[in-house]
Records
---
Amino acid sequence: MSALPPNRPVVVIALSRQDEHRVKSCVDRGESGMDRSRLRRRGGAGRAPTISDVAARAGVSVMTVSRVINGEDKVRPATRDAVDIAIAALNYAPNRAAQSLAGAGQIRIALLYSNPSAAYLSEFLVGGLDQASRGAVQLVVEKCEPDDHEADVARRLVASGIDGFVLPPPLCDNRAVLAALVDSGTPVVAVATGRVAARVSAVSIDDRRAAFEMTMHIAALGHTRIGFIAGHPNQTTSALRLQGYRDALVACALPVDEALIVPGLFTYRSGLDAAEQLLDLADAPSAIFASNDDMAAATVAVAHRRGLEVPDQLTVCGFDDTALATTIWPELTTIRQPITDMSRAAIDMLLDAVRRRRSGEAPQHRSVVLDFAMIRRQSDAPPRRQAADTD
């Protein structure tokens, strides 16, 4: 692989094999004799490609190319892809001096993570890397182990010149980290928090409403004993999802049985223990709603081990709609949380906050709520089948 042009924005990008072939094909076409001669006719042999060359190759205006390079969101995905391909094909390096004059100098953003769910984290990283690659952004990804002096890690990164921070759960609710960053004056976007801290921007969904709608769906199928596996107590969204479950039972005039509510930690292991506890009850639930897909997948595994068919003998529903939801059998009915889009939105919000800070403008702390969706697959069914099995 050839060295990057000097001063080119740097970001680590994970590409699928299909994307690798597509970009390589575009680069190969850009280095063909025909394309080189076309460039020579435009400005002479050996000159570096310009933003005008990129615009002509992509079939868009120079302003559109500028918007893509600067990571602005008012560009259609298909147009953005065309510009990205043209940039790769021409090996175009933005003029850093011109970018600095426009207030778009390189920005360093740190994504701190401490999430036990690999499925959640992978989707979050895809969104962050994708959005960072569209602007002059260097994305620094660093792990913070629980109780590993997370606030010290944050302060060290601030001292190293990080311009802004993205905090996915559970760090979005870590008071020590948030306090350290807010005190430093560094822009922060907390993702999927249920309680937005002062002087912090946030991206989230309505977790209470999402859990309410899933519980209402399960009750509408005819289930009257619905088990619930709660999330980690150190995450504010856990309480919101539990509240949504409780509110739905009240709305359906169903009793709130505390025995049907068991703790979880958002991990597969905790889901195994919680499912065993629920299914050991003398009057076991006919449906179990887990606060994330990892715990729902664990519930399906416990059901299979006990000889219970899902959904014929037990309905199981999850939350998040990570890749795990469609890699187990049966595929999970779940709440789709737009994890990738939330990560992208967080990067965009930080870019705006950093540029405002560099230009001396007052900070604006925003809270954005994205839409969720209930995705029905093969893991839920009416309870009549269970009743028929006991006749």
Note: Residues 107-205+338-360 form a domain with the Rossmann fold fold (CATH 3.40.50.2300).
---
Amino acid sequence: MAANDFYIRGMTEGDLPAVMILEEDLFTDPWPESVFLEDIASSFSHPQVAELDGQLVGYAILWVGVEEGHLTNIAVSQKFQRKSIAKRLLSFILGLATDLKLRQVFLEVRPSNEAAIKLYENFDFDQLDVRKNYYRNPPEDCVVMRHMIASGNSGREGE
């Protein structure tokens, strides 16, 4: 994958058909399109998409509160997994969090999603807690993880 063929940019309404295909392909309990529309319109939400050769291959959403962020979703097309796209999206999101002067970023993940947990741990996310019966379809607990932002470091790449 050549660096000039891949980039990350803000999500637009025009991206929603491709985003919804990914959402339905990847998740057993997909978010409705209305949630993504709200994220696009919101001043506290920063939805991003990853494009490769003009094709939307992934997305990530960072919600911003007072000094902290919440990675609500990160997804990469199955066809493009294991090509460092999730790593680059996560790096971009953490760089954005740094630029926004956030102190920490939280996320929830299924304990069965070992690949995602490993990715998050490689980015220095720590496991904080387990929420029992958090997910509905299929029922499963969730692991709450946190990344502390080191001041002065911007990790954004892939723009």
Note: The chain is about 30% helix and 40% strand.
